[in-house]
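Fig. S4 source data, part A: sequence.
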Amino acid sequence: MYDLQELYQEVVMDHNRRPRNSKKLEDPDRQAEGFNPLCGDQLTLYLALEDDLITDVGVEARGCAISTASASMMTESIKGKTIEEAKKVFETFRGMVTRVRGEEFDADSLGDLEVLAGVSEYPARIKCATLSWHTLQSALLENQEMAPTE
């Protein structure tokens, strides 16, 4: 049986080596840019929508393993969700990685994203893990400014 740290490393490395939905969408309905000035991670997120359903997602990313893996996992978790459902996943994920040690979070609603829970113990890495998520929020809100990592 895997311990959580071993599973975390395996999942992060898999998504870093083979990021899912790593592509530019032609004529996306929404697009946003994100940049983490602390470590240089940057990405562009593309969303295809049908009404308020996310039908496809693409991301072009350059960054550390945690940033790349988190972006990859995010794309898998939001595809097929409504805008409101994606916003809820964002809030739950952000709550998980910014929580105080020992504080509970809704792991059931996060699925595989739960393996990133350990990031909360490394404050310097939280911005890496949340960059793609803040970029998603900017795209969902149709914010044209560069997504912050706050």
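Fig. S4 source data, part B ends here. Residues 22 and 59 are 5 Å apart (CA to CA).
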